[in-house]
Design a protein that fits this description.
Length: 366
């Protein structure tokens, strides 16, 4: 549970830092209706897929005009925040209330946009062994929330300041295995909505000349922590430590590659070993004293968005003393640079569709 509160605090501080730096921009407000269904990504949630999902999405958007050099690289995206209230179509799941920070990227004369948002959600109707034993998707009240949307906008309908828009969405809810059960949900569908522009300013898009990259190679040192459980229902979550080092190659103003090593110190794996050895001795899978530490090699990509970046990594355990989840692992998330050398990161580690942990990290780039 402490991990989820850290997630909310981390998102608030980073979003406030970004907004505080910008002034005198054009703002827009949106209201959308979402209608969809839950994806059947696991047999363990089939009994929870009943009616359609329905939701109301309230959003605030702020335009950019090239004040920051990176903005022209992505056709002057906008950023903002949204509040989503969603009924998951099942009395066992109930409703989810989520808040996101977002970026919108524009195409086709800025009528088509791709939205990506990351945030946190509140779930009142979580799993309870007595009151709600069927809810195997949500084990905690606080959850991470990821939203994507593809929208087409018809501007100033009937000569009014109102825009009409329609498109599709995908929303993912998961607590990152901070508390089991955590089968999670993915729901997708269609959306329609209206938007209104406020404080429209007559500004031109700036096209500054970008300075060449002077430092193409760098070295990172990262320490990350959080809390997760062993996957055994009812067990408390335990703090873990991940140490990472990597060599990075900057390819362009937009992106870079990294090659690195992860060392994982995860006590919940030790709990899993001890439980299996004690509860199922006939399987002869564990003795109870196996090493619970792991180490992996990874290849990563970093997409730069000014002071922010989007990370994606694929790794393989080179030290893997026990068979736990899968030998391959994935990490996706965001990074916030406070200076050229110091940053904070938020990463979701998973083994394909099975989440293992949410990592809160601090790092230095040399």
């Amino acid at each position: 549970m402490k991990t989820n509160y850290l997630l909310c605090l981390w998102l608030f501080l980073c979003l406030h830092s970004s907004i505080a730096q910008e002034k005198n921009h054009s703002d827009a407000f949106h209201v959308d209706y979402l209608y969809g269904k839950i994806m059947r990504h696991s047999p363990q949630i089939l009994h929870l897929i009943q009616g359609p999902t329905q939701g109301i999405l309230l959003s605030w958007e702020r335009k950019t005009y090239g004040k920051k050099n990176w903005q022209q690289l992505y056709n002057y995206p906008s950023y903002g925040a949204s509040l989503l209230v969603q009924d998951m179509g099942s009395p066992d799941l109930g409703r989810v209330y989520s808040l996101h920070g977002e970026y919108r990227f524009f195409f086709w004369e800025r009528q088509l946009s791709l939205k990506a948002g990351l945030g946190a959600g509140y779930i009142p109707n979580t799993y309870d062994p007595i009151e709600n034993p069927r809810n195997t998707a949500y084990g905690s009240s606080l959850t991470a929330s990821i939203i994507f949307g593809l929208e087409y906008r018809l501007k100033q309908i009937f000569g009014s300041p109102i825009d009409f828009k329609f498109g599709g969405f995908l929303v993912h809810y998961s607590n990152g295995k901070t508390k089991s059960p955590n089968t999670s949900t993915n729901n997708y569908g269609v959306q329609i909505g209206l938007s209104h522009q406020f404080s429209e300013t007559e500004k031109r898009y700036k096209t500054p000349v970008l300075k060449p990259i002077t430092k193409s190679w760098s070295w990172d040192l990262v320490a990350a922590t959080g809390a997760n459980d062993s996957g055994i229902w009812g067990e408390d979550n335990e703090a873990f430590l991940t140490l990472t080092t990597s060599v990075n190659k900057r390819l362009s103003h937009r992106s870079g590659l990294s090659l690195g090593v992860d060392a994982f110190f995860t006590p919940s794996v030790k709990t899993y070993i001890e439980y299996k050895a004690a509860a199922f001795p006939e399987e002869n899978q564990f003795q109870g004293d196996e090493d619970w530490r792991r180490a992996g090699l990874f290849l990563g990509h970093e997409l730069y968005l000014g002071n922010w970046s989007v990370l994606s990594q694929i790794g393989y355990y080179v030290y893997y003393p026990i068979d736990y989840l899968n030998r391959e692992y994935l990490k996706v998330g965001v990074r916030r640079y406070f200076t050229d050398q110091f940053y904070a990161s938020l990463l979701l580690k998973s083994h394909y569709s099975k989440a293992e942990a949410i990592e809160f990290g601090i790092g230095i780039r040399l």
